Amino acid sequence: MAESFLPRVNGVTNSVCRILDHLAARGHEALVVAPAPGPDSYAGFPVKLVPGVALPVYKSFVVGVPGRQVENALRAFRPDVVHLASPVVLGAAGATAARRLGIPSVAVFQTDLAGFFRRYGFRGTDAMLWSWLRRVHARADRTLVPSSPTFRELEEQGFPRLELWGRGVDQTAFHPRHRSAELRARLAPAGEKLIGYVGRIAPEKQVELLTRLVGVPGSRLVVVGDGPAERRLRGLLPEAVFLGFRTGGELSEIVASLDVFVHTGANETFCQAVQEALASGVPVVAPAAGGPLDLVRPGVNGLLFPPSDGTSLRAAVTTLVTDDAMRARLAAGALPSVRPRTWEAVCDQLLAHYSEVIYGSAARHRAA
Description:
Blueprint: H1 11-25, E1 32-35, E2 41-42, E3 45-50, E4 52-55, E5 58-64, H2 68-77, E6 82-85, H3 90-101, E7 105-108, H4 113-119, H5 126-138, E8 142-145, H6 148-156, E9 162-164, H7 181-187, E10 193-198, E11 219-224, H8 230-236, E12 241-244, H9 248-256, E13 260-262, H10 272-279, E14 284-287, H11 292-295, E15 302-305, H12 310-322, H13 324-338, H14 343-367
Parallel strand pairs: 1-3, 6-7, 7-8, 8-9, 10-11, 10-13, 11-12, 13-14, 14-15
Antiparallel strand pairs: 2-3, 4-5
Pfam families: Glyco_transf_4 (PF13439), Glycos_transf_1 (PF00534)
Domain Glycosyl transferase family: 186-332
Domain Glycosyltransferase subfamily 4-like N-terminal: 9-170
């Protein structure tokens, strides 16, 4: 059950696709249930689409509207385990159906919904959202959590049966060898250092903090992505280079060609963009909150700043832009810091979690 899937590209979709690629390579069978619109297959696996409705506050975020087709799909496919990718609405229906059919399930916590809605002006919703998510995840046999700060938060919120499970990074697509002198010459014709942001241009990413980087000596800001706050941010940053949404080889080349990678949002449960920058050999400046705390090691591969503190963000970026020796040292430490985090290793860990809930469920049934 994927709360988000192609053609929408985000952290949930990316991880689901990598998992499906791994399952296909290992000879497993899978069925994807996801919101429409979308493809009818992926990696040779069928995709069952359910009606989807866009959120009023974020048109590109589509919520699946489940019905009987969820349970019918599971009944027909008869899986050994149900994978619930960032379950909220469709995933909640999947968790309920799996329990009714006696199928073990693994839920993956990926989205800080409380933080997301807070950034869109919905105040006083935290307790309600946490209560709902806690009930959804309580129906699963195991919840996998992407970072240690998020793990601690879910423990405090009373989520049961938690295990830590991170994300992999494609170290072929993201690697220092993709650094392009030609691209750098186009983006920084006067030899400026390139400061880059890659991600959704949206309130929950706190992209307004990028305005604090205007005028950092000897630098140029590059923004990659799209989203509801793009028009406003373009107006606030007339000197920045906006490259729009990029994927594939173009994105690999852009990220590797940066001198400093900046992430602004303080509500990340993991932050794949930070990991991709590190794999590309680029030092990272990120908030000292959530997922980046597991990825950025100050003085080794980047710097951290207090969440939402634009002054500290500017100071950290200025330090890296102006101190060539420090920037080179942190760049050298970037790729080694994520080298063990391959998708193959991470997906093998996931298969082990599947096996444990499958055989644990079988043992419970035998005992009963």
